[in-house]
Amino acid sequence: MPTVAPLDLDGHCVAVAFLNDIPHFAMADGAVHSLDHGHKTCQANDGLLYAFHDAAGERLVTGGEDGKVFAVTADGQATELASAGRKWISNVAAGPQGAVAYSAGKNAYVRFADGKVKEFSHPRSVEGIAFAPKGMRIGVARYNGATLHFPATDGKPVELEWAGAHTGITFSPDGNFLVTSMQENALHGWKLADGKHMRMSGYPAKVKSLSWSAKGRWLASSGAPAAIVWPFTGKDGPMGKAPLELGTRGNAMVTSVACHPSEDVTAIGYDDGMVIAARFADAKEVLLRRPGKSAITSMAWDKGERRIVFGSASGDCGVIDISA
């Protein structure tokens, strides 16, 4: 049976991550807590709105209502990377070669490792931002679609149109697909090679959590009483295929998903604080955490594939050891 090491914090947990194998918890008040031979805390933003950890697991990038972007490292250091003046930082993302992207209002920015910043303006507010897995490219979610920018060059942006408000964005690990979450309880996707559309609808609630499986063959999502897992195994993604529905519970909604680093398994967090793991091949489930005080807001696996760090809406956080 997995064991849970709890960490009770005050307030809403925005994001969690393992930095150098140390669990970190970014809170809505701008504090970042860690469990490194005891409970430690460092202050990043004065009021935190958004946090994102880089793929290398070396830093947590945060942005907040104070208009600043910070990088928090495993040793507890918070370094200011950029400022947007009095504007709120609404999104942040970590990219290749030490680059960081962030947004404020209608503008998206990319800060390179040398400190140089490039700005991209849009007609409406930027609602989501993500780096492509290959090359220096960012995707921006906006009203009526998404825009692709190439920060290292002055290349013309690529506009991907679809009516409605797009609120989040993610690239598939192979870079072949772009998927956005929408205000209207749906996902929308594009096959980047030819712009072909993929509409993934039928959710009873907004999709706030997305996670790609290890090889990008599956995309797990929240927003229903089960984890909705779309197949991206063919050249046209999920078109014409039904998604998997894993961990169905009639009295709870899935609020967070986190796919296993190497296997076709996902951790599933619910609005009552329960966490399970479910296998794609046969839908087999394992209980990882019994219900808690509030909804699971974020989860992440460690590199050793033994532990899952989780955060919640009311601060009852912790680390699950599945090898126990």
Automatic annotation (TrEMBL):
Gene3D superfamilies assigned to the protein according to its UniProt record, in alphabetical order: YVTN repeat-like/Quinoprotein amine dehydrogenase
Domain of life according to the entry: Bacteria
InterPro entries: Quinoprotein_ADH-like_sf, WD40/YVTN_repeat-like_dom_sf, WD40_rpt
Name of this protein: WD40 repeat domain-containing protein
Keywords per UniProt: Repeat, WD repeat
Keyword Repeat annotated: yes
Native species: Aquamicrobium soli
SUPFAM superfamilies assigned to the protein according to its UniProt record, in alphabetical order: Quinoprotein alcohol dehydrogenase-like
Statement: the UniProt record of this protein carries the keyword Amino-acid biosynthesis: no
